[in-house]
Amino acid sequence: MQLTPPGSACSIVIGTGLTEMAPGVVQGLQHTVTDMDAARDALLARGVEVGEVAEMGGFKFASFSDPDGNGWVLREIRESDRS
């Protein structure tokens, strides 16, 4: 299955037999969002354990793991940061 957020040039592919990597070996995958609070709230509402939001250098970060144990980092990039 391929997931592509609206307006994104990046996709995530989920499936069985796509790679020989063991579950949980990928750490630090980044997913950028334009509204950290809304993205974190949406994950929490779906039962995902998401760490507290940290602000570093004007950017917000929060981390979580998927069911396979891979580590993800949410990173907020506001529209004003893109220019």
Written overview of the protein:
This protein has 83 residues and is mainly beta. It has a single domain, classed as Roll (2,3-Dihydroxybiphenyl 1,2-Dioxygenase, domain 1). 12% of the residues lie in helices and 30% in strands. It contains 1 helix and 6 strands, in the order βββαβββ. Strands 3-6-5-4 form a 4-stranded mixed β-sheet. Strands 1-2 form a two-stranded antiparallel sheet. The longest helix has 10 residues, at 36-45. The termini are far apart.
The CATH architecture designation is Roll
Order of helices and strands: EEEHEEE
* Mean pLDDT over the residues: 88
Q: What name goes with the CATH superfamily?
A: 2,3-Dihydroxybiphenyl 1,2-Dioxygenase, domain 1
In angstroms, what separates the terminal alpha carbons? 32 Å
How much beta, percentage-wise? Answer: 25-35%
Largest sheet: 4 strands, mixed
| Contiguous uncertain segments of 5+ residues | none
Total beta strands: 6
Count of helical segments? 1
CATH class: Alpha Beta
Instruction: Tell me the radius of gyration.
Output: 14 Å
Structural class label: mainly beta
In the CATH hierarchy, the third-tier topology is known as 2,3-Dihydroxybiphenyl 1,2-Dioxygenase, domain 1
Q: Give the overall shape, derived from the CA principal axes.
A: globular
Strand order of the largest sheet: 3-6-5-4
